[in-house]
UniProtKB/TrEMBL annotation:
Listed name of the protein: 1-acyl-sn-glycerol-3-phosphate acyltransferase
Record InterPro entries: Plipid/glycerol_acylTrfase (IPR002123)
Limits of the Phospholipid/glycerol acyltransferase domain: 48-158
GO biological process: phosphatidic acid biosynthetic process
Pfam family name, one: Acyltransferase
Length: 222
């Protein structure tokens, strides 16, 4: 399968993200048993940000494969090595340098939203407990600047340790729940993008994401 290159405007390829979604569908359903709840809550059109908890490497591919719309994830540059570099670029993912203010990545991410696409973000910045306990301000910036609602996404069951056939992966054919929440706006309606406004937006986002995760755990029994 040939993958699209980056668009002439330098933005991540929307067609590539759709190809990535189709690859994800086959791969995730072939290796595990995804159970998707609340996908109907995702707006069918317009810019959207998926805020995904992150406890395992497959969380991003899992969301890409089960989401109702193609998704462009912000992914650390360290993942773009060898053949993965052209592959991830070809399926519309966005390389980001987490050690600095990566203006190129910021511009491409905002371009996704301006084009009415879906941007995927791990607001915790890196893999951890997956409980949204520590959020970075980047999510608030993209939501306020891009004028996009945030859809919280909880991936549950990806970090189980028992019965793994391959080290570093959840047990094959195990159930993984992906729960989409209600979209919400991060800003206060003023359009302000000051540091204080973004800090306040981050606090509102954290409360919403934590609440969604708690509800998702109750719903799935995880």
């Amino acid at each position: 399968m040939s993958l699209p290159s980056r668009g002439e405007d330098g933005l991540p390829s929307a067609r590539g993200a759709e190809v990535g979604r189709r690859i994800g569908v086959g791969l995730m359903h072939g290796l595990w048993k995804p159970r998707v709840l609340g996908a109907w809550k995702v707006p069918a059109t317009g810019p959207v940000i998926f805020a995904v908890n992150h406890s395992h490497n497959i969380d991003g591919p899992m969301v890409m494969g089960v989401a109702p719309r193609p998704t462009h994830f912000l992914i650390k540059k360290e993942a773009f090595i060898g053949p993965l570099d052209p592959f991830l670029t070809g399926i519309g993912q966005v390389k980001v340098d987490r050690a600095a203010a990566d203006r190129t990545a910021i511009g491409r991410a905002l371009g996704v939203l301006e084009a009415g696409g879906v941007l995927g973000i791990f607001p915790e910045g890196t893999r951890g407990e997956g409980d949204f306990a520590s959020l970075r301000a980047g999510l608030a910036y993209f939501a306020v600047r891009g004028g996009a609602p945030i859809v919280p996404v909880a991936v549950l069951g990806s970090s189980g340790r028992r019965g793994r056939l391959i080290k570093g992966l959840p047990p094959l054919r195990s159930r993984i729940d992906v729960v989409f929440g209600d979209p919400f706006d991060a800003g206060d309606g003023s359009g302000r993008r000051t540091r204080r406004a973004l800090d306040e937006a981050t606090e509102r986002i954290q409360k919403q994401l934590t609440s969604h995760l708690e509800n998702a755990r109750r719903l799935t029994g995880r």
